[in-house]
Amino acid sequence: MKTELVIDLEAEKQEILKRYRALLRASKSTLQKGDKKEIRKAFDMALESHKDMRRKSGEPYIYHPIAVAQIAAEEIGLGTTSIVCALLHDVVEDTDITLEDIEREFGKKTAKIIDGLTKISGVFDTNSSLQAENFRKMLLTLADDVRVILIKLADRLHNMRTMDFMPRHKQLKIASETIYLYAPLAHRLGLYAIKSELEDLSMKYLDPDTYKFIAKKLNEKKAERALFIKKFVEPIDEIVHEQGLVADVYGRPKSIHSIWNKMKKKNIPFEEVYDLFAIRIILDSAPENEKADCWKAYSIVTDLYRPNPDRLRDWVSSPKGNGYESLHTTVMGPRGQWVEVQIRTQRMNEIAEKGFAAHWKYKESSNDNGLDQWIQKVREMLSNPEANALDFLDDFKMNLFSDEIFIFTPKGALIQLPLGATALDFAFEIHTDVGATCIGAKVNHKLVPISYKLQNGDQVEIITSSKQSPKEDWLNVVVTAKAKSKIKSSLKEEKRKIAENGKEILERKLKSLKITYNTDNIQKLSYFFKLPSTQELFVNVALGKIELKDIREYLSSEKEVENRGPERPENLTVDGIKSKIKGGESDILLIGEDMQRIDYTLAPCCNPIPGDDVFGFITVSEGIKIHRTNCPNAAQLMANYGYRVVKAKWNRQKELTFLTGLKIVGIDDVGLINNITRVISTDFKVNMRSITVDTNEGIFEGSIMIFVNDTEHLENLIKNLLKVRGVTGVTRFDA
Ligand code: MN
């Protein structure tokens, strides 16, 4: 359907100016003499160069750069240079304006930042497998000027907020990248508010049903919750002021994404998530009183409510690496419910909300080198050209999200490591050579193995031996990206030497069998032995795992190999897959842009059933695999291999059944299992594949694998199972 677009240009012009003035108001606090003129110049340039462009929604394109600049100013607290760059972030990429033009008008610094933004703008948009490599490039610009990444985050946030007009497969891809990379990056830079919003928006597109379900549940109990918070806060507020502290005490809801994470992690229904909100006490303290005031407030709270001794977190004495400072405790509320309380000063709060930029503003206040240290680490990791880009990305991503522990050296220096770090991680943190030769450690003067998991506050002394060298299984021992990449490059070097040796041996062997040594034959051999690369082949030969008799065996079956050949990426297209199909009645699922009927298999990681929101993923050797969009592996697949994602849609059917799992919990009762199986087998005529039941002190927990037609069928079954006496919860699980 086509709709005529009627545009009132005069009204649009007014709206553009209105938005521009709102931007100026948002940047007011950082404006200095001459800044306003500079911003106006950037605005005029952006307006002129984007004048004929519109967004997918039909709105003038200029709304986007204005909005990005507004986020940069208001939500990240960035200054004039960044606002100028945000306004111009798309002009070099999308219009005739060149970097030279920018440099002439706005100077070197601005041109450099826009250059960085332009370079990374194509990072995820290309149909190539180079996303990981590009992400690495993006981090290189981060090492140059963090503002590039901060503006990029503002850009991404605005795109996520306005994604409704995008086609579904683009929404999925953009949302996946966001949850996979941008949210962790925002987290690492301490932009908690932006991180939470990015996560919620991603979930809105990747898992719309769950998102709506939790949003609805939150809304239902809103008034009740507000009342509880009011009653909880009142006495704190009173005593805090009595004791002469100036403070703002309020309740703050947790994000939908974090609530969902808790439900999944603890396998509990929404009703049992206790921390749907946190209480915040924000103190207005003089710099010299900050710490004392926080503890004073802590003392007031814990006099009123009993604290859980395991849940005290002191990031005031030792701030997190991203600059976060706060005192967290969990106390028992008046209705026997645990409540998290966060205590911090206004300065700390601004850092918590706006991250790095605000941090920078208060530079004079000590211990703020966490971010500098981190950027230094990023530089180190990037400087290792040996590292495989995808591996690097995975390691790096993991390090973005982890919490930190603080470890002491024998001389009392403080080293920050991610939670779960081992003695070996610590060794690599000290120095690559110390890590490579590490044979053990003394933790608090006690001898421990290299795999020892360090605890916050441990004092560690590393023991080395010149005879030691990195081993393959060390990769399972370490968690830091630095240690991983150092171990990998050392193993790689060793492997390279072995492979070189193996290559010579293989050449001799082939000669004796009168086979020519060439690339083609070597590739055929690796394929025959099911090895991922020719290097692996050489290594296997060198280690004696492939001998002369094995190669003879290959010779006798060579004919067959010729007909197959290894899979090449060119086959990774819908059409490539299609040509392989001989007939088949796969009319349940329609795949690709033109919704063709193509063979597929259902991914075992998420067991999709008809009705689920799904996508197809083109695999290297197993054709098209169908995943649910909320599959735990989906974000990683879509973010790294967007070009291999194809659209997939269910066709309605009632003949075929699909395997799925249900977790049933309840109060153990005579006949409970009978009643459950009666509903499943007799009432619903559903076939069960397996059932396992666990009862513990009167609590019943069952896992049932069943065959259903589609999600509607499944939902009806769940509804009826919930009616069985004693059953308190029924949830679907994946694998
Ligand atoms: Mn943009």
Could you describe the 3D structure shown?
- Pathway: Purine metabolism.
- With 735 residues, the protein is of the alpha+beta class.
- A five-stranded mixed beta sheet has the order 1-2-5-4-3. Strands 11-15-13-14-12 form a five-stranded mixed beta sheet.
- The longest helix has 32 residues, at 481-512.
- The model is unreliable at 124-130, 361-369, 559-570 and 579-586 (pLDDT under 50).
- Bound molecules: manganese (II) ion.
- Residues 64, 89-90, 155 line the site of manganese (II) ion (MN).
Q: Hey, roughly how much beta strand do the residues contain?
A: 15-25%
CATH architecture of the largest domain: Orthogonal Bundle
Bound molecules: manganese (II) ion
CATH class of the largest domain: Mainly Alpha
The helix-and-strand class reads alpha+beta
| Mean pLDDT reading | 82
CATH third-level topology of the largest domain: Hypothetical protein af1432
Number of strands: 19
- By CATH's scheme, which homologous superfamily of the largest domain applies? Hypothetical protein af1432
* Overall number of structural domains: 6
Rg, alpha carbons: 30 Å
Question: Major β-sheet, in short?
Answer: 5 strands, mixed
Oligomer: single chain
Residue ranges: pLDDT <50 for 5 or more in a row?
Answer: 124-130, 361-369, 559-570, 579-586
Q: What is the topological layout?
A:
Layout: H1 9-27, H2 35-49, H3 63-74, H4 80-87, H5 91-94, H6 99-106, H7 108-121, H8 131-144, H9 146-161, H10 168-188, H11 192-206, H12 208-220, H13 222-242, E1 247-253, H14 256-266, E2 277-283, H15 290-304, E3 313-314, E4 327-332, E5 338-345, H16 346-354, H17 356-361, H18 370-382, H19 389-401, E6 404-408, E7 414-418, H20 423-430, H21 432-436, E8 438-443, E9 446-448, E10 460-464, H22 481-512, H23 519-528, H24 534-542, H25 548-556, H26 558-564, H27 574-578, E11 589-591, E12 600-602, E13 614-618, E14 624-628, H28 634-640, E15 645-650, E16 658-667, H29 672-683, E17 687-696, E18 699-708, H30 711-722, E19 727-733
Parallel strand pairs: 2-5, 12-14
Antiparallel strand pairs: 1-2, 3-4, 4-5, 6-7, 8-9, 8-10, 11-15, 13-14, 13-15, 16-18, 16-19, 17-18
Helix pairs in contact: 1-3, 2-4, 3-4, 3-9, 4-7, 6-7, 7-9, 8-9, 8-18, 8-19, 9-10, 9-11, 10-11, 10-28, 11-12, 12-14, 13-15, 22-24
Manganese (II) ion is lined by residues 64, 89-90, 155.
